[in-house]
Amino acid sequence: MTTSETAPRPRRRLLPLVAVLITIVLVLGAVAAAIASVSSDDDPDAGETPTPTASPSATAGPASVVAVPAPIDAGSVAGVVAAQSSTADDEDQRAFSTLTLAGDTSLRTATDAIVSAGVAEYEPRRSPGSANELNIGFDAVLAAGPYLGVQATTFLYTGGAHGQSRSQALYTDVTADRTWPSADLVGDPQQLAEWAGVALGQADLSETAPEPAEVTHDVRFGSDGSLVTVMDPGEPVASAAGAVAVRIEPAQAATLLTAQGSAIRAAAMAGQPFAGSTAIPTATARATATATVTSAPTRAPATGDVDCSKLKCIAVTYDDGPGPYTDKLLDELKAAGAHATFFQIGKQTASYPKVAARELAEGHAIGNHTWTHPDLRRLTPDQVNSELDRTAAAIKKATGFEPVLVRPPYGATNDTVQGVLKGRGESAILWDVDTEDWKNRDAAITTQRALAGAHRGAIILMHDIHPSTVKAAPGIYRALQAKGYTLVTIPQLLGDALKPGGKYFSE
User: Fold this and answer.
1) What is the pLDDT of residue 29?
2) Which end of the chain is more exposed for a tag (fewer CB within 10 A), N or C?
3) Is 463 a catalytic residue?
4) In the chain, which stretches have pLDDT less than 70?
5) What is the pLDDT of residue 328?
6) pLDDT of residue 485
7) pLDDT, position 304
8) Residue 54 DSSP one-character state
9) Residue 503 to residue 431: CA distance in whole angstroms
10) How far apart are CA 263 and CA 224, in angstroms?
11) 374 close to 155: Cβ distance less than 8 angstroms
12) What is the pLDDT of residues 397-410, one digit of tens each?
């Protein structure tokens, strides 16, 4: 056999071997890459240098998503007075719960501006023939040194599946009578927005960083020097998530503020007593003093034996208090030998605890009218419970009494709300005589409507927050008693008929 005949044979045998060797090399390469990947996971410094983000400062991550901070009890802040007003028109439901400070005009001007802006936005958007709601409430968020912090929450509903909610914070120097929105206290809003965006991304809440304006409208100061920014639903987190809060660590928080913001932060950290308490006129001391009952009954005390099966009973009820005129109303009830039922707003109870205690001590009944006066039909069961729980706690703190009567704001209830009440062992008390005192603000008209609708077993609706209603009270009581009526509380009128989850318009 010649050389030319045998030379190609070894090359044909080498081809499979080369293929095997190439396969082995590829496999070993893949294994090495996998090992390197695992190693880099364990050691962040191993392998290639990570690609830097657009904002190196944001990668430090000094921010985290936290629960929205709870407000402080405004009733514990001397000199702060809550005021409540509302309507009872289902097509135009309005409730305003404001906080004022004796002698301070700048805070009142700022809160009035928020209310006016809310009304201006709400009015042209109202949907005729359907339910509309504007609810603006104020809560205290800081009381330290000369500074009072107030948060305003505005809720608008003008049709559709959901309403719109937004918040903003104001800070007042009570010694200088100056008020700033929290946005004016942040010197580097862009950096705050970047850090907040990183925190939202890490919590898988949003891939989009918020705008600077979205993180500065509601800023809170922590006693540890941290900052918390509260973003409204939809900023930029989906609305279904509700309001979202991001906390900035103290060291980084210090770099974000203006000089005035730094001064307020320092006061929050120092924990100084609120300076406003020493400058409040004594005329308001009774309204703002706290009253805590350490041991008390869980039911209202008896007001005497009343048999409404034999007597011509009628129940007068008052909503939205207690307020600055409630004491005078109690004087009129006492003089007439009459009793009434008071459905209280929790914020008002916290501001006027001694008045609430007097109501119970003088034989009147107390019920729950929620904390912020919302339309409960638009809330989840948890939100309904929260509204009722906060007010029940304020009533118990002031009086020692746990209310079992509830008046849903606007008389608005449904199966969901009634189910919540049943689970709580509470009853919904509505009315069948509406004086519309909230609308007419006229003592003569209020009196005429109360007497025109009166009948045995009736439940009359009024509000003890209007001076015209208090002015009408003695004439109403005298006229009803002259017609043979006995003015009683709701428990006396309904007695054993009251059932958990029940809904009552009259006897």
Assistant:
1) 53
2) N
3) yes
4) 1-60, 277-304
5) 98
6) 98
7) 56
8) S
9) 10
10) 14
11) yes
12) 999 999 999 999 99
Contact predicate 399/434, CB 8 Å: no
Residue indicated by tokens 């409730």? 95
pTM attached to this predicted model: 0.79
d(CA 209, CA 130): 37
- Residue 177 has which token pair? 């009578």
Residue 8's DSSP bridge partners are none
Tell me if 476 sits within 8 A of 332, measured CB to CB: no
Choose among 311, 192, 205, 180: nearest CA to 255.
Answer: 192
Q: Are 265 and 256 in contact (CB under 8 A)?
A: no
DSSP state of 172: E
What is the torsional sign of CA 174, 175, 179, 183? negative
Q: What is the DSSP letter of 218?
A: S
The pLDDT assigned to 426 comes to 98
Cα 171 from Cα 272, distance rounded (Å): 16
Question: Which structure tokens are listed for 227?
Answer: 């900052």
In whole angstroms, what is the distance from residue 428 CA to residue 369 CA? 10
The radius of gyration computed from the CA coordinates of the chain, to the nearest angstrom, equals 32
State the catalytic residue, choosing from 217, 364, 463, 466: 463
- CB distance 141 to 150 below 8 Å: yes
Angle among Cα 238, 91, 501 to the nearest 5 degrees reads 80
Do residues 109 and 179 lie in contact, with contact meaning Cβ atoms separated by under 8 Å? yes
Query: Residue 82, CB half-sphere, CA atoms under 13 Å: how many?
Result: 33
Question: Residue 37 to residues 32, 33, 41, 45, 51: CA-CA distances in angstroms?
Answer: 9, 6, 6, 12, 16
Half-sphere exposure of 96 (CA within 13 A, CB side): 17
Q: Tell me how far CA of residue 295 lies from CA of 156, 375, 396, 397, 425, in angstroms.
A: 41, 33, 10, 10, 22
**Catalytic residue from among 73, 139, 319, 464:** 319
Residue 425 sits at φ, ψ, to 5 deg, of 75, 30
